[in-house]
Specification:
This protein is α/β, with parallel strands linked by helices. It contains 13 helices and 25 strands. It holds the Pfam family GMC_oxred_N.
C-alpha cells in the first residue's frame, strides 16, 4: 500500500475509530531509574518476536527474575496494530525503526527503506502476518549445517505445535479450519485462514488445478513440509485481531508474573565485559540509555544476557561491544570475523495488470465513505474486510529445471523448497505513488526466496551507540543467478496468468504502467532494477555454525548450535540473525520456533523449572 493510502487510512481512523485506552501493566517501566533492581537472572535485549517468547517462557520459573529491555513503545498504546488489513500503514511511522540501506548498485543506486518493529512484539506487530515455517528440507539443512539433529524437521515438530492455534474465520464464506492439519496445534499465537473470498482466489486455484506445468499445482497446506504449490494464506491473526508475540506471549506474562519486568523506550548501547580475567571474556552487563547524551546506566545479569534485538540490532550491539572483525573495529575485545556478515533478504518486484471486474479492493482506497463504514464495522464487531489481511492466496514454486546448469546449482535447500513466491493482490499496490484514480487492478508480488547475494551491516565510522543506525547493505541482485532468476520469475508469472481461468470472460486485460513496456529480457531486468525492493525478511548477520572442540572463530559461525556467542561467556543470541541460511518462506514462524527451542535450551542449561 502506498504512503498516500497509509495517510488516508490513518486520518479516517483518527476520526472514526474510538481508540481503546492502553492496557497498563504494573511491571512496565518507562524510565530506567524506576526499575526496582539493577540485577536480574536474565536480561533480554529486545521485546520482539523472539524476545517476547523468551520473556514468557523463562519467567515460567518463579525462582528466576527476568528483565526485558525494549527500545520502542508498548504495542498496547497503538491501536492501529490490532487491525489486520492496515498492516502496511504501520511502516514509516513511530513504531518502525525506519532503517535505510546504503545505495544498492544492483538497483541502479537506489537506497531502500527497511521496516522493523520499534514496539513490543517487534516485527510481529507490524508485519503482514504471513504464517509459513519452511519445508522439511530447510530444517534438515539447518541440522546438517550445525551438526545438531535438534534443528531437524522431525525435532522441531513439538515446538511448532506449541506456538499456535488455528481459529475459526470471522465470516461464513471463508474456508474452514479442518482443511489444513494445523488444527492439531495448541499454542498462544492465533492463526487463521482467509476470512473472505477476496479475488482472485478462484482464478488462482482454477489455474493451479488445471495447469499442465506441475510447478503450478494446488497445495492444501504450505506448512506440511512440502512447501511447493499454490494455496491459502495462513496469517497470525484471529477473531478479527492481529496476533503478535506481544499479545500472545509477553502481555499475558506481564499481567500475571511478579518476576518479569519490562523497560520500554530504552536502548542497550553495548555489552560490558567483566574486568576479571577469565579463559574467555564475560559479558553479563548491559549499558543502556534513553538518548544519545542522557545517562548511561549499567544493569547486570547473573545467568545470561540474551540478545533478541533483531538481525540489525543484535549484530550492531556486538560490534559496539568490541566483538567482530578486527579490521572493522576501533577497539577489539574478541576478533569474530563473521559478525555482521551473511546478511540476506528476499528481493521482490511487483507487476501490475488491469482487470475486467469491479470485484477488487481498489474502491476501498478511493471511497472514504466506504472506508469509514468498514472501520466502524471492525470497531463494533471485529468483522468485515479489515479483519482480514489483503493477501488471500499465494504460490511457492521452483524455477524450471532448464534454468539450472546442473542439479547442484539450485540454491534452494531441497526438492520440497521453492525458489520463487507469487502473492496476488486484488488492487494496485504501488509502494511509492498514489493508487490510480480509476480502474480495477491485479498486482502480483514476485519474490526470489532462494537468493545467492549476501551483504553485511557495519558501524558508521566513529559511532559509539545504537542511536546511530548501522550501515545496511543487502547487495541486492549482486549475482548473475539472482538477476536471471528474477527475470525468469516474471516469465513464470506471465505463464501462470495465461491459464484459461485468467482469460475467461476477458478478466485479465493486460499489463499496466511501466511494466507494460517490459517485453524483453533486457527491459525486464531494467524494470526490476528500477522497481525491486526486498520483502523485509533480513536474516543471518550472526549465523549459527556447528560445534567445534576449540569453539574457534571464523568459518564456524558467530553462535554455536545452542546459540551461545563464540569466544565469550554469558551471552546468547535468539532472533533471525542466527539463521545460517535464509528460509525460503516468510520468516516470523521460523523465529517463533527458534525462540521456543532456545527457551528449552536455556532452561536446561540452568536447571530451571518447566524444562
Amino acid at each position: 500500500m502506498s504512503l498516500y493510502l497509509q495517510l488516508a487510512f490513518l486520518s479516517i481512523l483518527e476520526i472514526i475509530l474510538l481508540l481503546s485506552s492502553p492496557f497498563s501493566y504494573a511491571k512496565l517501566f518507562t524510565r530506567p531509574e524506576d526499575v526496582p533492581s539493577r540485577t536480574y537472572d536474565f536480561i533480554i535485549v529486545g521485546a520482539g518476536t523472539a524476545g517476547s517468547v523468551l520473556a514468557s517462557r523463562l519467567s515460567e520459573d518463579p525462582h528466576k527474575s527476568v528483565l526485558v529491555i525494549e527500545a520502542g513503545v508498548s504495542d498496547s498504546s497503538v491501536s492501529t496494530i490490532q487491525i489486520p488489513f492496515l498492516a502496511s500503514s504501520l511502516r514509516q511511522t513511530s513504531v518502525d525503526w525506519n532503517y535505510t540501506t546504503v545505495p544498492q548498485s544492483g538497483l541502479n543506486g537506489r537506497s531502500l527503506t527497511v521496516p522493523r518493529g520499534f514496539v513490543t512484539g517487534g516485527s510481529s506487530s507490524i508485519n503482514s502476518m504471513a504464517w509459513t515455517r519452511g519445508s522439511s528440507d530447510l530444517w534438515n539443512s539447518y541440522a546438517k549445517i550445525t551438526n545438531d539433529v535438534g534443528w531437524s524437521w522431525d525435532s522441531i515438530q513439538s515446538y511448532w505445535k506449541k506456538i499456535s492455534t488455528l481459529v475459526p474465520p470471522t465470516s461464513n464464506d471463508a474456508i474452514t479450519p479442518d482443511q489444513i492439519p494445523l488444527s492439531n496445534s495448541n499454542g498462544p499465537v492465533l492463526v487463521n485462514l482467509p476470512n473472505y473470498d477476496i479475488p482472485p482466489r478462484q482464478q488462482v486455484f482454477d489455474a493451479a488445478n488445471t495447469a499442465q506445468d506441475p510447478r503450478f499445482r494446488f497445495t492444501r497446506d504450505v506448512n506440511s513440509g512440502d512447501s511447493l504449490g499454490f494455496g491459502y494464506n495462513q496469517a497470525s491473526a484471529g477473531h478479527g485481531f492481529r496476533s503478535s508475540s506481544a499479545t500472545a506471549y509477553l502481555n499475558p506474562a506481564l499481567a500475571t508474573r511478579s518476576n518479569l519486568d519490562l523497560l520500554i523506550n530504552t536502548r542497550v548501547t553495548r555489552l560490558v565485559n567483566d574486568p576479571v580475567i577469565q579463559t574467555k571474556p564475560v559479558f553479563k552487563q548491559v549499558e543502556l540509555a534513553q538518548s544519545p547524551h542522557g545517562d548511561h546506566l549499567l544493569f547486570k545479569a547473573t545467568d545470561e544476557v540474551i540478545l533478541s534485538a533483531g538481525t540489525f540490532g543484535s549484530a550492531q550491539i556486538l560490534l559496539l561491544s568490541g566483538i567482530g572483525p578486527k579490521d572493522e573495529l576501533e577497539k577489539v575485545i574478541v576478533d569474530s570475523p563473521d559478525v555482521g556478515k551473511n546478511l540476506k533478504d528476499h528481493p521482490v518486484v511487483q507487476i501490475y495488470f488491469t482487470v475486467n471486474s469491479t470485484d477488487t479492493l481498489d474502491s476501498i482506497f478511493r471511497n472514504s465513505t466506504l472506508t469509514a463504514q468498514l472501520l466502524a464495522e471492525w470497531q463494533q464487531n471485529k468483522t468485515g474486510i479489515l479483519s482480514d489481511t489483503p493477501i488471500n492466496v499465494f504460490g511457492l514454486l521452483q524455477l524450471p529445471d532448464t534454468f539450472f546448469t546442473s542439479v547442484d546449482s539450485n540454491p534452494a535447500s531441497g526438492p520440497k523448497s521453492p525458489n520463487l513466491e507469487m502473492i496476488f493482490n486484488a488492487f494496485s499496490a504501488t509502494p511509492t505513488a498514489p493508487a490510480p484514480s480509476a480502474g480495477n487492478f491485479l498486482s502480483v508480488v514476485i519474490a526470489l526466496v532462494s537468493p545467492t547475494s549476501a551483504g553485511s551491516i557495519k558501524l558508521v565510522p566513529n559511532s559509539t551507540d545504537t542511536f546511530t543506525a548501522p550501515l545496511i547493505d543487502f547487495q541486492v541482485l549482486a549475482t548473475d543467478f539472482d538477476m536471471s532468476a528474477m527475470v525468469q520469475a516474471i516469465n513464470d508469472t506471465e505463464k501462470f496468468l495465461s491459464a484459461p481461468s485468467w482469460t475467461r470472460d476477458g478478466y485479465l486485460i493486460g499489463p499496466f504502467g511501466e511494466f507494460a513496456n517490459a517485453t524483453t529480457a533486457d527491459a525486464r531486468l531494467q524494470y526490476i532494477r528500477n522497481n525491486a525492493d526486498t520483502i523485509h525478511h533480513p536474516v543471518g548477520t550472526l549465523k549459527m555454525g556447528r560445534n567445534s572442540p576449540a569453539q574457534r572463530l571464523g568459518g564456524e559461525g558467530v553462535v554455536d548450535p545452542r546459540l551461545n556467542v563464540r569466544g565469550i561467556q554469558g551471552v546468547r543470541v535468539v532472533d533471525a540473525s542466527i539463521l545460517p541460511a535464509i528460509p525460503e518462506c516468510h520468516t516470523q514462524a521460523v523465529v517463533y520456533i527458534v525462540a521456543e527451542r532456545a527457551a528449552d535450551m536455556i532452561k536446561q542449561a540452568f536447571g530451571m523449572l518447566g524444562h
